[in-house]
Write a structure and sequence with these properties.
This protein is mainly alpha-helical. It has one domain. The protein is 73% helix and 6% strand. The protein has nine helices and two strands. It has a two-stranded antiparallel sheet with strand order 1-2. Helix 6 packs antiparallel against helix 8. The longest helix is centred in the middle third of the chain and has 27 residues. The protein is globular and about 45 Å long.
Amino acid sequence: MAFLGYFLSHIPITLFLDSQGLFGPYYPKVLTDVVGWYCGMFGDVLMKNAPSTDYAWFSSLICCEILFQLPFFFVAIKFVLAGGRREKNAKIRKQIQHYPEWFRMTCIIYGTHVSTTLVPIIGAFLTSREMTIQQKCATIAIYSPYFIFPLWLMWLAVCEDFVGIGNSRKETNRSEETKVH
């Protein structure tokens, strides 16, 4: 359920808040006021200065969020709600959830991309001379779920059939080889 909440909340955040880092002048005043209040309160130097040539790297990350991450949110919600194909594993007495391999790989790509993009973002906050220590801590706390959840998703997708416990890849491959011979 944590991933469902993460993806459901991320859609309006991307559409109504983050996208202003590229298309701010085209948004209604009520939404630009929300981002303005947030930047004033928390000192987010990246959103405050976006879009700008000084922070072109940040604007490019927002572009990736809109073009690649946003469509993934809808796919991920569909699969999280569907829950994958379930099997009982007598050895560990747990249900195993299986998702299509393409979705597992997409989760690895998404998790790697997003958690990696948060490193320079957090670095920008830590090194900012415009933000107070309190603003840095608060802003990093706000951004941290967008580092933790993708990293967690990537870890689960790499190690096992994610969103639950699963067979290791080696065991699955060995059992498939046995069937072939």
